Here is the input.
Amino acid sequence: MTNFLLFIVLPYACLAVFLIGSIYRYKSRGFTVSSISSQFLEGRKLFWGSQPFHWGLFVLFFGHLIAFLFPRAVLAWNGQPVRLLILEIVAFAFGVCALLGLVLLVNRRLTSRRVQVVTSKMDVLVFVILLTQIISGLLVAYHSRWGSSWFAAFLTPYLRSIFVFDPQMDAIASVNSLSLKVHVISAFTLIGVIPFTRFIHFLVYPVDYLWRSYQQVIWNWNRKSIRTSRAHSEGHKSKNN
Amino acid sequence: MDIRSQVSMVFHLDKCIGCHTCSIACKNIWTDRKGAEYMWWNNVETKPGTGYPTKWENQDIYKGGWEKNGDSVSLKGAGKFRGLKNIFHNPHMPVLDDYYEPWTYKYQDLFTAPEGDDQPTARPVSLVTGEHMDVQSGPNWDDDLGGSPDYARQDVNLQSLSEAEQEAMFQLERMTFSYLPRICNHCLNPACVASCPSGALYKRGEDGIVLINQERCRAWRMCVTACPYKKSYYNWHTGKSEKCVLCYPRLESGQAPACFHSCVGRIRYLGVLLYDADKIKDAVSVPDDQLVDAQLDIYLDPFDPEVIKQARLNGIADSTIDAAQKSPVYKFVKEWRLALPLHPEFRTLPNLFYVPALLPTMATVANGVYDSTSKSLWNGVESNRLPMKYLASLFSAGSTGKIVEVMKRLMAVRLHRRGVTVGDLNVAEISSAMSEVQMDAETADAIFRLTSLATFDERFVIPPAHREESIEMLENTADVKGNTGFGFKEKPARGL
Here is the structure.
C-alpha cells in the first residue's frame, strides 16, 4: 500500500500539479515567473556556488534524460568496461560538483544578511529537496554502482509505465536500496513543487534567444508583429501615431 | 529608406546648476518603492568625477555597449553565446555596493526615546536589511568634488590626458567642474535590448522609447551589464529589471517627462527626430573618429519633401512630422550642430544630446597675484578650463576637433549677443568669430532665443499620441463593439 502511494499516486499527483500549476502560473501570475536572482545583493559567493551547482545539474539532467529516452544507446556505450568507467566517473564528478555548489549556496544564504532578506520559506524547501535529491543520487551512485547499466533494467520500465499510463511498480518496489527509492520519490516531489517555487525559472530558460534577432521594435498599433530593420518592408506597414 | 520617429532630448550643460530637482521629481514618481530605493533613473553627476554607479564609464570593468568587430559590431560583455554561458553568474554585473546601500533614518526614535541625559538621535538604517548601518556612499557622493583625489582624479575620461595635462587641470586656479545630468538615452541601437535573453526589452515603434516588459523579465540581468550607461537597474525585491520610461504616460497625454518639467535651469529640450532605420547598422560600424558624423547623418531633414513623403508611407502621422519640424532637438543637433551624444564610442546611438559647458575664464598666479584678466573679453575656447581632450573623451569619442567646433559656435553666439546688448566689442572681432563658424546674425539670435528665452512649448514639442484612438492600440474596436461603457471581462455571449 505504501509502495502504491509512493510510486504510483505520488508521481501522478506531482505530474498533474506540475502541468496544471505551471501553466496556470505562467498564464495568470506571469509576473512571478522569474529566476529572482540575488546576484545584485551578493555576487562573489554566488559565483563559487551557482556555477558548479548549475553546470552540475545541467549535465546530470540531460544524462538522466538520455538514459531514460535511449537506454539501448547507453547500454551499447557501456559495452566496454573502460567506457562504462568513464561515464560513471564523469557523472559522479558532476554530482559532487552540484553538491559542493549547493552547499556553498546554502552557506551563502545563511551568512549573507542581504541575501536573507530575499529568502522565502519556499527557498528553504527548495534547498531541502535539492539536498535530498543530490545526496541520495550520490549514495546510489556509490553503493549501487554501474547505474547507467542497471538503470535500463529497473528504472526505465517503471518510468515508461508511468508515462504510458500503465503503471508497473514491481521493478522499483523490489529494489533493495533505500537511497534509490528516496531519489525517485524526491525527484517527483521536485517536479511537483515547480509551480510553487523558484524552480519555475528552468522552464523559461531562454533558448529562443539563440535564433531571435538582437533588436526588437514593437509597434503598439500592431503589437503582434515585431519588426526588425531588415524586415521592415515585409508584410503591411504598421500605422504610427 | 525606413523612416521612424524618435522622441529625443537635448541637455544644455551651461545652464545646469546641479540642483538635483530632476532626480527628486523622478524619484517621487517612479522609484520610491521597495527594491527601487537605490535606483536613480535620472541622476546628476559632477564631472570630473566617478559618477553613479562608480566608474560606470569604464567598460574594462563593466563590459557594456558594443565593440567594433570587422565590418559590424558585437556586444562587448553579452550576446547570444556569452549571455547564455554567463546566465548562472554574470561576471561583469555591478552589485549594490557599486551603487550605494540605500538608507533611511529611525525618525520615530526622536519621539519615543526614553528620557535621558543625551539628545535622542535618528540613526541611519539600511533600506535593504533594516539594520543600523554606517552610511558609506550615496548616489551623488562626488557632488561638487571636482578637484578631489578620491573622485575627480579617478574619472575614467582622464585616461586620454597625459600626466602633465592632468596636473595642469588640477591646479587650484584652474580647477573646475560641471554637471552632467543623465537619464536613459533611448538609443537607436540599444545594447540592453540586444542583450536580453528573454526578449523582455523592446523599443517602441511609435516614439522609440525603450521599455522593459515586466511580465517577461526573468532576472537574467544581462541588460544591467550591457547598458554602457548603466541605466538599466535590477530591482532586488521584485526580481525584475527596471529603467527610465521617459514618463511615457505623461508624454502620451502631452505632458513633458517629470525631470524635464521640473528642471529649474530649464536646460532640457525634448522633440522628435526623424531617422532612417536602414542606416543604423552602417552608422554603428564606422571607426571611432567618424561616429558622431555617422550618427548625425541618420537623422533626416523633416522639411525635405522626399523625407515627408517616405515618412507618410511608413505610417508616420502628419502631426508627428509637424512636431519634427518644430523640434528644438533638431535645431540644436542638426541645424546648429551644438549638441553631441554622450560617449558615442559605446556605439549604441544615444538619443540624448549635450551642449557642452563653456567655461572659458582662466586665471593664473604670477608672483602670488591672482590674475584673471585676459586679452579679449572671454579667452579663446582653446584655453577652456576643462581641456578639450577631456570633453572629447566625453562627447565625441576622442576627436577634439568636434568639441572645438561646437565651442567656437557657442562663443560666436556670445560675442554676437554682447555686441547687440552692450556693444562694447570690436565689430571686426565679432564678425570674424561669426564668419569662422559660418554663422549669421539671424541664426545666432535664434540660438540665443531658444537657449535663454524659450517658453515651455518651445522647449518641449511633444507629438500628439492621438489618445482618441488609443483604444485601438489594445484591441480591435470592431470586435468588441457590444462592450459599451466599462466593458466586460468576458464577452457578452451566451453561456454553455
Chain A touches chain B through 52 residues (CB under 8 Å). The first helix of chain A runs from residue 2 to 28.
